[in-house]
Specification:
alpha+beta; two-stranded antiparallel ribbon
């Protein structure tokens, strides 16, 4: 892992961020498989419940987490 500077399009500025190499990204993708599976199960349970606003908010937050993990794993170099 290392700090890199990426240009921000059309601004002339750079954004500093951490970059993973292929090995680190693959390792993280493997580690995130279990939490993703658990979040998908939770999302399925929440899909069946449409009662309170709190449950709707929880479902939305879980859906966002699932989407983020799926996106990360999909762009992993070993997938």
């Amino acid at each position: 892992m290392q700090w890199i500077k990426e240009p921000v399009p059309f601004t002339g500025y750079y954004e500093q961020m951490l970059a993973l190499d292929k090995r680190e990204a693959a390792l993280l993708a493997r580690i995130l498989q279990k939490p993703l599976k658990e979040l998908r199960k939770r999302l399925e349970r929440l899909d069946d419940i449409h009662e309170s606003e709190r449950q709707k908010n929880r479902r939305c937050e879980t859906e966002e987490k699932v989407s983020l993990l799926e996106h990360f794993i999909a762009i992993s170099p070993n997938k």
